[in-house]
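Sequence decides. Consider this:

===
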Amino acid sequence: MDAKKIFLIVLILSVLSFFTLFFLDKKSYLYEAPLHIGLFSAALYFLWNKDLKTTLHELGVPGDLKTNLVFSLSGFLAIIASLFIIAHTMNFFGINDQSKIIDIVDKLPLYLLIMAILFAPFSEELFFRGLLVRRFGILPAAVLFSILHISYGSVGEIIGAFTIGLILGLIYKQSKSIVPPIVIHMIYNLLAIAIMRSL
């Protein structure tokens, strides 16, 4: 069986598992695992070209180490600066719903936090940047990325996710590699979770 068929089968099983777990036990967040496996499988199904080496090459993996470091650092700093501005603007207008996100993250099980740091950056970057940015552009990919974060019920989270999506899309386009967006996403999730859990 070729790789594309395997990715398609995994995608179908992931979709079925997601809806089953979502409707049976929404509070356990177990549906998050098939969601991310589905994003990963969908991305690889559409991005797969001949073999693993060719596919990775088209995604700019591994890429140039120095270039990856420069884009990872600049992208991360751009995200921090943007979120700082957004937070202060929202506070100025009296819109401060960060506590909703902190409450949710505080209740999440450990396995989900680990998945958010180690697996979600791969699945989300392959799908939103590697696939959607290439096919539809930076703006539509950022809009869909922000919609994925709507379940937090926070205006700040939606605006923040949209901004992060724009920056990661630009970094992907400029660096011509999926590596910097994955690195940025991983570090951001690690720091955000660590800060929120310590509050």
Summary: The mean pLDDT is 93. Residues 172 and 178 are 6 Å apart (CA to CA). Residues 65-92 form the longest helix (28 residues). The radius of gyration is 17 Å.
